[in-house]
Amino acid sequence: MSRLLGATQTTPDEVLIERIAQGDRLAMQVLFARHHVRVYRFVLRLVRHASTAEDLISDVFLDVWRQADRFEGRSAVTTWMLSIARFKALSSLRQRKDAELDEEQAEAIADTADDPEVAVQKMDKAEILRKCLTALSLEHREIIDLVYYHEKSVEEAAAIVGIPVNTVKTRMFYARKKLAELLKEQGIDRGWP
């Protein structure tokens, strides 16, 4: 009977991790279904290449399966998974050639032929914001991603990235400032809510 009740959509993540540590494949399926999109989007924002992100997601959840017995519960399960994902994404980025210019980076280079007014007419604000976000440094982009898109607290972001809380706050300040400048260059005066 307990197997039938097993891992359901309402089972807390911590319980799923305990069950995964015992080899429960259903618990792994539930955890994957619940979090794979969030983890994929986080990795995609870091590596900016869809097929690389897909490969890394497989590695992340394989590590979750293999390391579930090592989860100590000092943070939320999502924080732990995003830490694994971040490590894998950064390792992947280090393996890339520094001089390599991928498609998204090439697209992020501003076209000097258009003035800001024409650019705004061509793109909606969401697209402009996405492009401005890609222009931020990796360190600033990942903090913005964790805090605003994944709704992680400053403390959780610090745990995921492995830096002090004050460094997260400083990076947030400078990331928001830079983003506001980039948006203003694109003709959007109100840069950040």
Q: Give unreliable regions as ranges.
A: 1-5
CATH class of the largest domain: Mainly Alpha
- Total beta strand runs: 0
The CATH architecture of the largest domain can be given as: Orthogonal Bundle
Query: Which class of secondary structure composition applies to the elements?
Result: mainly alpha
Spatial extent as radius of gyration: 19 Å
Order of helices and strands: HHHHHHHHHHH
CATH superfamily of the largest domain: RNA polymerase sigma factor, region 2, helix turn helix motif
- How many separate structural domains? 2
What is the residue-averaged pLDDT?
81
Kindly report how far apart the N and C termini lie. Answer: 50 Å
Please state the overall shape, judged from the principal axes of the Cα atoms.
elongated
Q: What share of residues is helical?
A: over 70%
Strand residues, percent: under 5%
The biggest beta sheet is recorded as: none
Here the CATH topology of the largest domain equals Rna Polymerase Sigma Factor, Chain: A
Please count the helical segments: 11
